[in-house]
Design brief:
Layout (H helix, E strand, L loop, with lengths): L2 E5 L2 E7 L2 E7 L8 E6 L9 E5 L6 E2 L2 E7 L2 E6 L4 H4 L3 E5 L8 H12 L5 E5 L2
Length: 126
């Protein structure tokens, strides 16, 4: 299955109607590549976390096995049984040092979305 790799020009982290959301795209208004990761606590923690990409038509819950955040990238690894629905096995999003991305806000939202879930979170901003 294919991997999604793109350079982000925008990362938005916000809460709307008690839903935590991370939106990432390669263009603010008309992205060709994007992902949306969200958490709405309703039942099982893992089932309340979803991901949607520009390749998938719907949000897929309980699909993220691991997330790695580094100084210049974030990588999402998809669970084997969800690869077909997400249409990717790995999603790597790069961003440059001079981008307007608030890495510490992204770190906070990754923590808040994946806390108490089975998803492995690996953060190293050094």
């Amino acid at each position: 299955m294919n991997e999604i790799i793109f350079l982000a020009s925008i990362i938005e982290c916000y809460t709307e109607n008690d839903v935590l959301i991370i939106g990432v795209g390669d263009d603010e208004f008309d992205p060709e590549n994007y992902i949306v990761v969200s958490r709405f606590d309703d039942g099982d923690v893992d089932d309340s976390i979803g991901i949607q990409t520009h390749l998938s038509e719907i949000e897929v819950s309980n699909a993220i096995m691991k997330v790695c955040l580094r100084k210049n990238k974030v990588i999402f690894f998809i669970k084997k049984n969800k690869i077909q629905k997400v249409q990717a096995s790995k999603i790597e999003i790069d961003f440059t040092d001079d981008s307007q991305i608030d890495i510490y806000l992204l770190e906070k939202y990754i923590h808040d979305i994946f806390i108490h879930s089975s998803t492995v979170v690996d953060i190293d901003l050094s």
